[in-house]
Amino acid sequence: MDSWSMIILLSCALFLIGPTSATLDTISANQTVKDEDTIVSDGNLYELGFFSPGKSKNRYLGIWYKKISYGTVVWVANRETPITDRSGMLRLSRDGNLQILNGGSTVIWSSNTTVSTWSNDTAMVVRLLDTGNLVVWDNSSRNQSVIWQSFDYPVNTVLPGMKFGKNLVTGRESSLIPWKSPDDPSPGPYRHWMDPNGYPQIFVRDDKVILFRVGPWNGLKFQGLLLANPDPFYKLEFVFNEEEVYYRFELKTSIFLRIHVMPDDTAAMLSWIDQIQDWAVYGFAKAKDNCGRYGQCGAYGSCNITRYPLCKCLVGFKPRVPDEWDKANGSSGCVRKRALDCRSGDGFKKISGVIFPDTRRSRYNHSMTLLECEMACRRNCNCTAYANSDIRNGGSGCLLWFDELIDITEYDEKQDLYIRLAASELVDSQLSFNKTKIVTAAVSTSSAVLLLFAVVYACIKKKRRAHMKERGNWYGRNKKINSVHIEDLDELPFFSLNKIAKATNDFSFNNKIGEGGFGPVYKGVLEDGQEVAVKKLSETSQQGLEEFMNEIRTIAKLQHRNLVKLLGYCIHGNELILIYEYMTNNSLDLVLFDEARSMMLDWPQRFNIINGMARGILYLHQDSRLQIIHRDLKAGNILLDADMNPKISDFGLARKFVGFDTDTKTKKVVGTYGYIPPEYAVGGRFSVKSDVYSFGVLVLETVSGKRNREFSYDGHNDNLLGHAWRLYRQGRSIELMSESLRGSCIDSKVLRSIQVGLLCVQHHAEDRPTMLSVVLMLVSEGVLPQPKQPAFFSEQSRAELESVSSVDDYMITLLYAR
Asked: Could you tell me if residue 376 is inside a domain?
């Protein structure tokens, strides 16, 4: 599946509208809207009228987009009572009741709202606002107020500003029930609602069975909900007071976003893209995985999608029904190993990185500290756990649980949960920990006795290896190669060394087309005439079997139009060889930084390369079945096919990750100087935002035609990033563009690309956008956020980075003491 398909382009149900006889902006009391009439919003963005969805001939009153995406329905009135012909009418009574009539007489749907204080000067009107909200309005001079609005009764779509929740005074609930099918807007089996019991959470059910839970609000977002906060295009808001509890999102820019639940219960935030005239997935609201089912591991069990079996009992608990757990069925949950004894003083065990258990049987206090929360739980013998309710500013507020803890999922959440355990259980846990430390110390003492012998043996072995290598017998690596398990490679074709040698004319120098950190690359032609690129591990390479296997395990399972395709491999003796599809135009650096060849790249081609790289990285981070951080994105690893389409290559240093914005620390920093961010170069921390930084460098290099690491300018000693930053602050960003682009560029597109590049190379990882935001920023025309200072801007920072490189100017491999 190609990149844009992986972003998933979606359209809603198409519909048919009768010939329009009147287009209105409002209707007043006793005025009617016939089947062929429509009401348009103030800015002509939305339209209301009768429609037939998909292949159906039934007629429904609905609201759809008019200015964009004509045919995308966002609200339906009579979804359970369709009209079978074109006799339907919409009418507003004098007392404010909005009605749909069938045949001019029978009321088939009503807003069921009337004004009890009606008088002769009451002036009821219906207006469709440019937010998509249909409003019944008392427009009299003495009492201007909203009587009824469609935003209080969502169907399957949440628009910006629409509340999803419950009015605790009136009991009115705003929930989402998707259509049965694209042809039938009647309520399907699924229902999304906000449960205000205990501490509010979002639930999804099928009929009466709870399928999924998103729980609770942590000050920034609902735990487990995939929509980010903060985000450059929207902000999330949660309101919880004595009168109402609701969740909504508001737009920061002019982009069009909506949350849509499809008939199969897939919930996603969609963004309108003018260039393709369709909706694209901006982000999925919830993940569909094996841990998504409510109560998967029962009481006191936790679920982890990377583990098999999925379920495990929490510390201090054991399986309730061991036989079921032995069969990988943890739904029966867990029980305490030792009963609580409140009088003897129970204690608490901290658990990190989980989605909190169901909070319907919880209590909360927004003003308590964590210590006060613990004391409150200690005083109540029925309290089973406690936690901060808000992660902001170091944590605040108090959540207390008073029942079994159910539906715990291990996830990258930044909150700690404190679970009540018997004092004796906590003592045993500490004794076990201390015993481990004692054993470790004893082993360390014994190891010291053997250390001298080990050093002597290592020296002898090192000399032997050096001697063997001089004789051409690559013993150490060959030993590792012979241990490769065939099942690791069963998804990829094997090529014999004889076949590869024949294809490359015995690895002739004339066939050599390049060389990287892994080794030389040769052009080859297979017996069937297919051109291939053959990458052969060299004996002098600092990479080896680990990178070879990592490349195979990673790229063999990835299929995308902007990723290079791995065709096969060869292992023969000491030889490690990878066979790829051949890229006619070689790598981006050989074209971009060559004065003559760079003239081939006009602005449309360069923007296509930028856009293609972004889509490829987005696929790695979000849409592939393996979520990948590449860690070595650079111009030399971007290959160009015959049509100058970019393909990301070289996955030897790539790493898999789980969840969102995963941050990992390593002692070995690998990558290419000029493309790695400061948190990785200096602190060893890498995440998806590391790739975002590298992409930002690539964008600025592609626009300027200059290398970041070799850039020079008479007026200062900054690198390319610093130069771009100076020009941006002075309003002269267009000067960064290569002179060869003057005749083919669109200034606004160039400036937008430069600003996106600067957003990606900001010093702090949390300030950088996600690749999903990057893709949308590149193809949309909304207002972009203002970038902050890029990394390595000052000469001092740049000098510090250069001083720590232990290999050469190109590759960085650093060891840090911990």
From this structure: yes
Please report the DSSP string for 21-70 in residue order.
S-EESEEETT-EEETT-EEE-TTSSEEEEEEEETT---BEEEEEESSSST
Query: Cβ contacts of residue 26 below 8 Å, gap of 6+?
Result: 39, 125, 126, 127
β-pairing verdict for 244-251 and 685-687: unpaired
Helix 688-704 and helix 747-760, axial crossing angle in degrees, nearest 10: 150
DSSP string, 680-703: HHTT-EEEHHHHHHHHHHHHHHHH
How many domains does the structure of the chain reveal? 5
How far is Cα 150 from Cα 421, in angstroms, rounded to an integer? Answer: 49
pLDDT of residue 461: 53
Phi, psi torsion values for 101, nearest 5 degrees: -110, 140
Q: Which amino acid is at 782?
A: G
Residue 710 CB contacts under 8 Å (≥ 6 apart), including other chains: none
Length of the chain as a residue count: 818
pLDDT tens digit sequence for 262-295: 998 989 899 998 877 888 888 777 766 778 889 9
Residues 565 and 646 in one domain: no
Whether 219 is in a domain gets the answer no
Cβ(579)–Cβ(500) under 8 Å?
yes
Beta-carbon contacts of 9 under 8 Å, excluding residues fewer than 6 positions away, are 276, 278, 279, 280
- Residues involved in catalysis: 632
- Listed in sequence order, the residues at least 6 apart from 153 whose beta carbon sits closer than 8 Å to its beta carbon are 174
Domain's final residue, options 532, 556, 581? 581
Residue 522: which domain range? 481-581
Q: What pairs with residue 166 in β-bridges?
A: 173, 245
Q: For residue 334, what are the β-bridge partners?
A: 319
Which residues have C-beta within 8 Å of that of residue 761, sequence separation ≥ 6? Answer: 677, 693, 696, 697, 700, 721, 768, 790, 791
Closest CA to 86 of 102, 99, 100: 102
CA 685 to CA 668: how far, in whole Å? 10
Q: What is the pTM of this model?
A: 0.64
CB 141 within 8 A of CB 121: yes
Q: What is the pLDDT of residues 358-396, one digit of tens each?
A: 999 999 999 999 999 999 999 999 999 999 999 998 899
Concatenated DSSP letters of 58-108: -BEEEEEESSSSTT-EEEESSTTS-BSSS--EEEE-TTS-EEEEETTTEEE
